[in-house]
Structures are given as structure tokens and as C-alpha cells.
Specification:
alpha/beta, Rossmann fold, 19 helices, 14 strands, about 50% helix
Length: about 400
């Protein structure tokens, strides 16, 4: 099976090289790895006291970030090596102030894994959520370097637990410890003979809870809002935006919407503007003197802080592969509506059950749910309390992990 896995890794790399000719992200994936050998060599020579954190992309980095910063604060004697698989994570966080070296993860071939680990010889490695690179896992295990998985989550449908999953399941035995998000993951691992697992929750809740107390003020948003209540539609895709256009017609004078599309490219923004049936403006050109029912956010990096102004939120992606992050709005106490593809996120499942979130399947359900939240303030406040209480109960994962590490690593 390892031979098949290694063949897959090589084919993936070859596919990326071929795609690089016409795909900018693939080009970054390839060139970033080709051009970093000297940088890695210089970084590795600066210290022999590294801790290695690896994230697939930006979302996973945000889950690991609270732990990175806790380690840096409490154990400044360590240098932090931060690697990414995806350009979308590396390009945004390549200058992250709490990391001493930020790089792309070399492709998971046996030779690359051995060379990279032996170059840095980290005191420990931390892989975030789903980053199962089996050659790196083997080399770390063979070298006696502890490997921890942070905010992992397991489901019975994953290949580890399928009829053909024996080899993959066996690799999990090489992991020093799993810090998992929920009881179901712990139980699933234990049932399959993997006992080195502890339920600690999702570290990202620690990050978003901190965000809620440090969000900055946005004067233009306050002016746009005025005396109205706001719906914020965040990380939307075209199928979401088609549904929302019908909701916009239903908004009364005391309601307005902020629309933050996932794609802020000029072509999509132009198309989106043409599809909105009410008066609207772009955030970058906002004029408070002009009447406006919808404000389109045509930049990135501020959405997570804008949720402080929302009465409730619609999160996009649920009519595609899966919903985007709902933790950020929930931490501000915003009830959340999203499409039907949400099952991969335990917080979405939990909040639907508790009454703080709502899945809709079509335009009719969206309008019905939104109208109930708009018209019944008592109901909306009850939903908001559910969200706030849920976040409060979920925080603390970082300290639980640090407690374990103080007894087993930092000794």
C-alpha cells in the first residue's frame, strides 16, 4: 500500500507541474517548493530547538494559531517552524510574526520527508486537523520525534475506517497523541484500537472568542447601518447570491444587508452588482449621502470583524461543497443560516440541534427563516443567546492541550 501511496504523491506532483503552465495557484505550489531550499538551509542552521507546526491552508492555520501563540508566550526558548501545503495559506501568512520560519511543505515523498525532518530535527511536530502525510508520519516516528494532531475530527465514512482502510488505520498508531474536537471522534478511535486520543474541543473557538473582544471599529459600516438592523451574508457563492436576491426584495425599511462574496474579483463583482434588485454600493466607494439597501464588501480581511454589527447572518458555501466558517459570526451571538452542505462541521450540527443555526434547502425556506428572525425579536435574542452560550462552552481547548504538553513535552 505504501508503494501505491508514494506513486500517488509523485503523480500529484507531476500533475501540479503540468497545471502550473496555466493555473496560477498550481504555479505557486510548484515554484514555492523549488525556490526555498536555500532559505530552509539557513533557517535550520540558526537553531537546534525547533517546534514544527503544519497546516494545510489558512483555515487550518487559524485553528493552530492559538496553540502556536501560547507556546511562543510560555516557551520562548523554542523556534517555531510553520509549514503550509497550500499557497492560499502560505501567501497570507508568510510573514507571520510568531513563526521563525514559514515555508511550503515539501512533497511527501520518502526522500523529501527524511531530508526535511533531519534538517530541522524538531523537538515535536503538530499537524492540524486532517494533514495526514504518511511518509512524514513514518519518519517522525522512526526518529523518535513526538507528533501531535490538533483539533482533529473523525467520521465513520473516512477511509481509515472502511473495509480497505487497514493500512491507513495502522498509520494512526504512529501518532503520539490526538487532540480531537468531539466525543464521537474519541470513541471512533478507541473502538479501532487507537487509544492515544483526548477530547479537547476545537482550538479555533479560542481564536474567535478573542477576536470578539478585539474587533476594531468601522465608521463607514456604522453610517451605513444607521438605525437599521443588519443581515450579513458572508463568503457567498453564486448559488447563495441567487437565493439572497429574492430575500432582498422582502427587506423592510428598517433592515439592510452587507454582502461579502467569496470571490472579490472584478468580473464577479460586476456580475453580482447587475443581479442585485435594490439600491446598493461597494464598500470601497461608499457614499453615505446616497440611498443604499445593500453594501457589497469588495475587499478581503475584514469580514470576521464585521459580524459585530449583524442581527443575524447567512453563511455561503452550503449549496456547493460545504459551508464556510460559522464560528466567527456565532462568537458575536449571531444566529446563522446556511445551505444543506454543513455536516462536516460539528458546530453547525450542534447549533442546528440547539436552535442557534438553520439549514435551508431553497428560496422558500430561506425567506421563511429570515422573516421569522426579522419579525420576532424575542425569538432572535433567544437564538443569539444559544450561540453565545455555545461558544462559551467550547472555549478552552488551547489550555487543555497546553496542560497535556506541560506534563509530557515541556518537562
Amino acid at each position: 500500500m505504501r508503494l501505491i501511496y508514494n506513486l500517488f504523491i509523485r503523480l500529484y506532483g507531476l500533475g501540479a507541474m503540468l497545471s502550473a503552465r496555466f493555473n496560477p495557484k498550481a504555479a505557486q505550489w510548484v515554484s514555492g517548493r523549488q525556490n526555498q531550499a536555500g532559505y530552509l538551509r539557513q533557517a535550520a542552521n540558526r537553531s537546534d530547538n525547533w517546534l514544527w507546526f503544519h497546516a494545510s491552508s489558512l483555515g487550518e492555520f487559524e485553528q493552530g494559531r492559538p496553540l502556536i501563540e501560547a507556546v511562543k508566550q510560555q516557551h520562548p526558548e523554542y523556534q517555531v517552524l510553520l509549514t503550509f501545503f497550500s499557497p492560499s495559506g502560505f501567501e497570507v501568512r508568510k510573514n507571520y510574526e510568531h513563526a521563525d520560519c514559514v515555508a511550503y511543505l515539501p512533497a511527501d515523498t520518502p526522500a523529501h520527508a527524511r531530508a526535511f525532518v533531519q534538517q530541522f530535527r524538531p523537538k515535536a511536530a503538530f499537524f492540524i486537523k486532517y494533514e495526514f502525510w504518511f511518509n512524514y508520519i513514518k519518519v517522525l516516528h522512526d526518529e523518535g520525534i513526538p507528533l501531535y494532531f490538533i483539533s482533529a475530527r473523525f467520521r465513520p465514512s473516512q477511509h481509515f475506517f472502511s473495509f480497505y482502510g487497514f493500512w491507513f488505520r495502522k498509520q494512526l498508531g504512529r501518532i503520539t497523541h490526538f487532540f480531537v474536537q468531539d466525543k464521537e471522534s474519541t470513541q471512533l478511535l478507541h473502538n479501532n484500537g487507537i487509544t492515544q486520543a483526548t477530547e479537547t474541543g476545537d482550538t479555533r473557538f479560542d481564536r474567535v472568542a478573542k477576536l470578539a473582544t478585539t474587533a476594531r471599529h468601522f465608521p463607514d459600516i456604522v453610517q451605513f447601518k444607521g438605525n437599521r438592523k443588519l443581515i450579513i451574508a458572508g463568503s457567498t457563492w453564486p448559488p447563495d447570491e441567487q437565493l439572497l436576491s429574492s430575500l432582498l426584495i422582502e427587506l423592510t425599511e428598517n433592515w439592510a444587508m452587507i454582502l461579502a462574496p467569496h470571490d472579490v474579483g472584478a468580473a464577479h463583482l460586476s456580475e453580482l452588482s447587475r443581479s442585485i434588485p435594490v439600491q446598493h454600493q461597494f464598500y470601497s466607494r461608499f457614499d453615505p449621502e446616497q440611498p443604499c439597501k445593500v453594501l457589497i464588501i469588495d475587499s478581503i480581511g475584514i469580514l470576521s470583524q464585521l459580524y459585530q454589527y449583524a442581527a443575524f447572518v447567512y453563511i455561503g458555501g452550503g449549496f456547493g461543497q460545504s459551508i464556510h466558517n460559522i464560528q466567527e459570526p456565532v462568537t458575536f451571538g449571531c444566529p446563522v443560516i446556511f445551505g444543506p452542505k454543513y455536516q462536516k462541521f460539528s458546530e453547525a450540527v450542534d447549533l442546528i440541534r440547539l436552535g442557534g443555526a438553520f439549514a435551508v434547502h431553497n428560496e422558500t425556506e430561506l425567506i421563511h427563516t429570515a422573516k421569522k428572525l426579522m419579525r420576532d425579536e424575542t425569538y432572535r435574542k433567544t437564538c443569539s443567546s444559544v450561540c453565545k452560550n455555545y461558544v462559551s462552552a467550547q472555549t478552552g481547548a488551547t489550555e487543555k492541550i497546553m496542560g497535556y504538553l506541560r506534563n509530557n513535552l515541556f518537562i
